[in-house]
């Protein structure tokens, strides 16, 4: 995707670090309890994350245990929590990276918020911003946002490109609301209708992977 800013496509999905001590284990148990309570409450997916972990700047690396003391995280923290807890609850889940086209007013507010913290704004490039979410489902996925209770459908305004990340699966296709998505590849939404016949046939094959 040569037309996408390298500064954004080079970002890896955020990973929360863990101390070799019980502190981080306790935090993960607390998060599992939150996710379990939400699922018992009849909700599926990670929409509880944004209510428990408020959105805002953080300085990386982020450790699990700091979320107990200071429940704040950017979209990367929230997506990492969503991935971890969905998997713990037995859902097939993958990380999703998005490049969104945002309104100038929003970007200006975010720039200001991040500039006033020790965090960096490497996730904004011109009118584009980098965002993280999760995809729930195996062959047919729903893209869920842990920052706000949004289900990305592909018809949303503002999604420029996305990458569905699956470290257990080198390539393969998943069906996102009728759109075939190549795993582990930045994909422009303009390309939705351009998949070849062989790619569509490939999509009929079962995926071979491990945990997901
Ligand atoms: Zn810790």
Protein model, in words:
The chain is an alpha+beta fold. The protein has one domain. Strands 3, 4, 5, 6, 7, 8, 9, 10 and 11 form a nine-stranded mixed sheet that branches. The protein has a two-stranded parallel sheet with strand order 1-2. A hairpin with a 6-residue loop joins β6 and β7. α2 packs across α5. Zinc ion binds next to α2.
In short:
The chain is an alpha+beta fold and 212 residues long.
Key traits:
212 residues; alpha+beta; 9-stranded mixed sheet; 7 helices; disordered C terminus; binds zinc ion
Radius of gyration: 17 Å
Helix-strand makeup class: alpha+beta
Largest sheet: 9 strands, mixed
Share of helical residues: 25-40%
Q: What ligands can be seen in this structure?
A: zinc ion
- Helical run tally: 7
Number of domains: 1
Q: Into which percentage range does the β-strand content fall?
A: 15-25%
Overall pLDDT confidence: 86
């Amino acid at each position: 995707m040569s037309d996408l800013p390298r500064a954004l496509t080079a970002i890896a999905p955020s990973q929360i670090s863990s101390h070799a001590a019980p502190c981080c284990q306790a935090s993960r148990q607390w998060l599992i309890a939150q996710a379990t309570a939400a699922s018992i409450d009849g909700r599926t997916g990670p929409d509880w994350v944004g209510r428990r972990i408020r959105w805002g700047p953080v300085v990386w690396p982020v450790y699990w245990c700091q979320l107990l003391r200071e429940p704040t995280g950017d979209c990367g923290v929230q997506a990492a929590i969503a991935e971890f807890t969905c998997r713990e609850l037995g859902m097939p889940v993958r990380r999703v990276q998005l490049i969104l086209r945002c309104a100038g007013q929003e970007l200006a507010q975010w720039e200001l918020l991040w500039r006033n913290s020790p965090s960096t704004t490497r996730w904004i490039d011109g009118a584009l911003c980098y965002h993280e979410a999760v995809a729930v489902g195996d062959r047919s996925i729903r893209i869920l946002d842990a920052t706000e209770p949004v289900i990305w459908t592909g018809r949303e305004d503002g999604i420029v490109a996305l990458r569905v990340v699956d470290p257990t699966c080198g390539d393969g296709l998943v069906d996102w609301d009728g759109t075939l998505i190549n795993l582990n590849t930045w994909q422009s939404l303009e390309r939705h209708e351009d998949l070849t016949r062989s790619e569509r046939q490939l999509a009929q094959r079962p995926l071979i992977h491990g945990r997901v």
